[in-house]
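Review session, final week

We close the course with one last complete record, chosen because it touches almost every idea we covered. It is Phage tail protein, a protein from Limosilactobacillus reuteri with 203 residues. Go through it on your own first, then we will talk.
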Amino acid sequence: MKKHEIAQFFMQKGLYRIRSDAEPGIVKFVRAGNFTIKNPEDRSHVVQFTIPFENPSGVKWSLPYSDDLMTYDQNLWQYGMNLPNGIDLKYHFVNEHHFKIWNASDITIDPAQKYGLKIIVTGQTGKFDMVNQTTGDEIVYVNSLQPNDQLVWDDMYCYLNGELCTDSTNLAWMRLAPGWNEFKIYGYNKVDIRFHFRFVYLN
């Protein structure tokens, strides 16, 4: 009965998020492969068994998001995650119109490929127009914003104060190339912008 319950639990169709001691700053979304549970030879009630996991996406993800506090002693980050030594990385900018962010991923973060990217804009007045000079991608909100508005690009869609407003944009989305990405926000208005995403690594 217990063997059946264990098999039924692990063989469900959904994905599991797993994390190991070997890579404490990395998570994988996996599916259980076939396995068997043998009866104990000594008639005890203790059984050891091994479950193989398959990673259908072929990638693994950073446990924390880019805008989480980046200190190694929090067990969020680890060595070998493509993080540059001796450089303070920023993903939150206030009243800066030229800046750069570091994408530690092995690959391009592209919302069209299901690699999530959220860009949160507040404090802006008027039209919002930003270009990633590294990839050439440009996102534009064509209507006039007020300082208390929150504009969010969530993957390929845009929301104003929680309401879908993609039709009021240039219908584009932002990608992040591996390494440094140089950004420019057009205009001189006050603006608060934050980039929220996980780094993606080849498995």
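Two points worth writing down before the exam:
The chain is about 5% helix and 35% strand.
The longest strand covers residues 23-32.
Good luck, everyone.
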